[in-house]
Design brief:
It is built from seven helices and five strands. By secondary structure, the protein is of the alpha/beta class.
Length: 182
Amino acid sequence: ILIYSFCDSNSDGVGDLHVAFEQLKKKLEAQGLFDAAHKKPLPKYPGTIGIVTSSAGAAVHDMLRILRKRYPLSKVRLLPVRVQGAEAPGEIASAIRYANYYKLADLLIVGRGGGSIEDLWAFNDEIVAHAIYESQIPVISAVGHEPDVTISDYVADLRAATPSNAAELAVPDEDALRQNLD
């Protein structure tokens, strides 16, 4: 009989990651990074949307397809980064800061498609959390699938259940706008 405990350390390190997640969550919450008072409203009609994600994943193609269909008036700027591995947190944080420094977008979507807790770990990094928090551009966190929750989700101005959902939340539906105008 095998008994698994997700709170205790185990051979694959998932328990250690859970402990690290909870410790960082507690630390950042104490620093005020999750406070609702710091959340920025999303623009109703974003002219330019920046997407910080991998250029190779299915998630970016889904987001582009949805954005093009719902609201083709928006421009989209892809800021390609690694979304997993040791270099990923630095690249993600740098892309967010770069977009802010050069005022590249009215809204940022930061995320990736689903994966294991290890695959999503870059979005549980303190430097990514601070980059999102410091962003003057509103940020939608779009990491993984519905049950996946990352530190980025807590810090962002809005959490999307999936990258596709982030694209839906980012822009109005052009067809609904036309009906309202009619």
